[in-house]
Amino acid sequence: MNDELKDNSENIFDPVSSKAERFARGNEIRKNVPRSVHQEWKPSVNRRDPVEILIESSIGRIETLLPIRYRRMMESPFAFFRGSAAIMAADLAETPNSGIDLQLCGDCHLMNFGGFATPERKLVFDINDFDETYPGPWEWDLKRLCASFAIAGRWRDFSNKNCKEFAWHAADSYKRHMLDYSKLSALQIWYADIDLSELIEMGKDEEIKKFHQKRIKKASEYTAHEKEFAKMTYHEGPRARIKDDPPLIYHPTVREEEIVLKAAEKAHTQYMKSLPDDKKILLSRYKLHDIAIKVVGVGSVGTMCGISLLMSATGEPIFLQFKEARKSVLEPYLKNKSKYTHQGERIVIGQKLMQSASDMFLGWTSDDLNRFFYIRQLRDAKVKPVLEIMKAENMADYAKACGWALARAHARSGDPSLLSGYIGKGNEFANAIAKFSILYADQNEADYHKMLRAIKEGKLPIAPEM
């Protein structure tokens, strides 16, 4: 592939130029990087073995948890896709890009979107996972998102035509909403969010609307910390303790526990320093009672993740989730290196740049082994997508919602006028991305079967079925 098409990287944001001038500049970029080139996917002759990339991405993870990671990825090509962001990052580096950089999610697939409560207790729809966030070519996020719809659609046994349409709707929604954002001021974009209740109301399927309205009502009434406390804890004398549920929730060994708790208290003190003063005052009213390892997601399995239980003097709980922050899978493929040496800080700043509202306890810390972490509330009125009940029209609506949320997130750190000028107002760009998504779904399926062969040959360990 022509290197000029692969890397024109230059972040062309010019606040002095008018919106019309920046739109025209985006249009000009098409001469060097036509929109049609985004439909291309053909693995290069030097493409790395996906199994090797998986093994490499497991280095430094908790070895006893790796069998759970691969067991979860075995479930389907879609589960494999969720756990293999590193493979797609290597592939995206081989695709053309327009040279327009902004803050990326980095692992932008359809399960990393959903509803959650803002600090003002409003339920919004947004991206909710930023472990891989990094500045880079905007197309990378959109291609991963649209490919995820093609892959998830196949998992749900929708036709290839449907799967291509899901990907097209995500790309088309991104285009339409980016054009809308291009007409707003930077401050208006920063204020913009997507109201979850209003989003649900836009759907035409009355049955699914009622289902989601019930979930929203439950989420709005859900007092997360108190409910989790009743379900997940017990008392050991004056101290509240998290219940073990191995292998997914467990404590360090008895011999290690005192050392671990002391290290956790030190890390918690360091975490508090990353918070604004008002949140420091709030959390200073709570004391750390317990921590436990908690296995989460697919891509994060094997990294040091867990939960900490804090209690006030009068017995009110707060659960915080800590997640190990490793280098972004995008970093090896981008010339610009992160200005953040602390990977937890990289994630927190990226999340605040992209989300319309972030968790008020979002912060970062390190431990005595120089591992980086970021911390947030364990759950806060979260509403996750339920793919299993979606019909084709629901998947298309969800694709439009995700495309909208990604456009809003990109418009905050990017230049929506420049992007809209490049994408244009017609269908050519969405058509190209939809074609890419189907081709990449084929690639993902082939890689999934390579992983299955590696498991059969004993190269990757798997846990017993759970």
Description:
This is DUF2252 domain-containing protein. It comes from Flavobacterium ginsengiterrae. This protein has 466 residues and is α+β, with helices and mostly antiparallel strands. It folds into two domains: 288 residues, no CATH class; 156 residues, no CATH class. 48% of the residues lie in helices and 14% in strands. It contains 18 helices and twelve strands. A six-stranded antiparallel sheet has the order 7-8-9-10-12-11, sandwiched between helices. Strands 1-4 form a two-stranded antiparallel sheet. Strand 11 and strand 12 form a beta hairpin. The longest helix is centred in the C-terminal third of the chain and has 29 residues.
Gist?
With 466 residues, this protein is an alpha+beta fold.
Helix fraction bin: 40-55%
From the helix content, strand content and strand pairing, which structural class follows?
A: alpha+beta
Number of domains: 2
Backbone shape: globular
**Strand percent estimate:** 5-15%
Order of helices and strands: HHHHHHEEEEHHHHHHEEEHHEEEHEEHHH
What is the strand arrangement across the widest sheet? 7-8-9-10-12-11
The helix count comes to 18
The gyration radius over C-alpha positions equals 22 Å
| Biggest sheet descriptor | 6 strands, antiparallel
Distance between the termini: 44 Å
**Total strand count, please?**
12
Q: Please, what is the average pLDDT?
A: 90
Pfam family, one: DUF2252
InterPro entries: DUF2252 (IPR018721)
Organism: Flavobacterium ginsengiterrae
Protein name: DUF2252 domain-containing protein
